[in-house]
Amino acid sequence: MAQDLKVITKAKELAELVYEITERSPKKFRFTIVGLMQNLSLGIVDELYKANDVYVETQYTRELKNDVEELKRNCGDGTERLYRDAKLTMIQLERHRILAARAEERAGHSQAAMLKLRELDWLVSLGARTQCITRKQQERLARVIYEERALIGGFIRSDRQRFRI
């Protein structure tokens, strides 16, 4: 079995902690703050899995890359060369379009995970103010949220550098 990325492992830890803490919350919060906190924590894991499952470089884009290399090796002259250059440009544009779309899809999921994490952070503070959770529980959650925020931020920065988005 393949191991999850650290960012996903920490998100799972956060979701488990949310469930552990909220199971003892007063019943009057069960379908409001508690439900939202649990859904958001699961949503973070979901978005990170989706982001990680978007493979920017696919079999099709690798084949396009090979087509480009093949066309570059086969030099013609005159009209043949113009045709080859036009075909080469079209293939390269198609490959870049696909890579950019896949990278944007991946970035969208990771940014959605970050947004859900921010919402969860706010709900945790609201939960403490309304006595849905204790201050000590808030502190525990805040520590894990802080660590997860750093990990997701690193995931996003890494993708931006890697895919130049």
What's the structural blueprint in terms of helices and strands?
Blueprint: H1 6-22, H2 33-53, H3 59-73, H4 79-129, H5 135-163
Strand residues, percent:
under 5%
Query: N- to C-terminal separation?
Result: 31 Å
Number of separate domains? 1
The arrangement of helices and strands along the chain is: HHHHH
Structural class: mainly alpha
Mean pLDDT: 91
Output the radius of gyration.
23 Å
Q: In the CATH scheme, what's the topology name?
A: de novo design (two linked rop proteins)
Compute the number of helices. Answer: 5
CATH architecture assignment name: Up-down Bundle
Q: What would you say this structure looks like, in words?
A:
The protein has 165 residues and is mostly helical. The chain is built from five helices and no strands. Helix 1 packs antiparallel against helix 2 and helix 4 runs antiparallel to helix 5.
What are the defining features of this structure?
165 residues; mainly alpha; 5 helices; 81% helix; 0% strand
Provide a quick synopsis of the model:
This protein is mostly helical. 81% of the residues lie in helices and 0% in strands.
